[in-house]
Hints:
The chain is built from 10 helices and 11 strands. The chain is of the alpha/beta class. The N and C termini lie far apart (48 Å).
Amino acid sequence: MYVAELESSLLKMFPRETAEPWDRVGMMVGDPHAKVAGVAVALDANERTVRLAHRAGANVLLTHHPISIEPPDTLTPLPSDSSQAGSSVYEAARLGVSVISLHTNLDRSHVARKLQAELIGSTAVSSLENAQDPAAPGLGAICILDEAETLHSIAQRAGIAWQSEPRVWGKPDHPCRRVAVLGGSLGDCAHMALDAAADVIITGEAGYHKAQDACARGVSLILLGHDRSEEPFCALLMQAAEKCGVERACITEVEDERPWWTAQ
């Protein structure tokens, strides 16, 4: 299998047209005519994950987040005047690692919706983005629990499922039955949760004032951290590579170092 064939198969599963207009999905750097020797999977495409992919014998790095949204100004190693994106492209080209990303097109897929619901022990009735059309692709998931639970209980379960120490907005005893899940950033999607009559939204991050506004309007928030909320998608990337014909033994997950930490 050639890299171009792998990219084509992945984009059939997660169509480019379903990505946000501003997004960069598919291959941003690499040789489409190279034979796939192995696929490494990671949340982010950066210098470290490119190198880890190369060390693992993979010449394809399949990620959720693209190297960058805007093209880097320079392609030079760090530390220098180059950005992280520029140095990542430089390193990928130097090592012969093709980088393919499935970002908002993966976010809108039915498999992402299903996984997000399963993480809280439920089943998705629709996406968050298209709550009135269960069959349509869309961002996030809407789940209806069998019985209402307190916000505190749901936050505890979400923390375990996503291996996070979430920040929670809302009263601990607030009863929640209709739960929205959205990986990454809340952005301007709070109105979707309101339109879907969600009691709480589990997401990665939210701006302070947007979180204030959502909470004031009756939607509690459980903030997992951007990376924590999307790390489960790496399993979907591995499954996708295998479905495209890459042997399971040739697929590996590489973990990036987290530059952040929490004080206890």
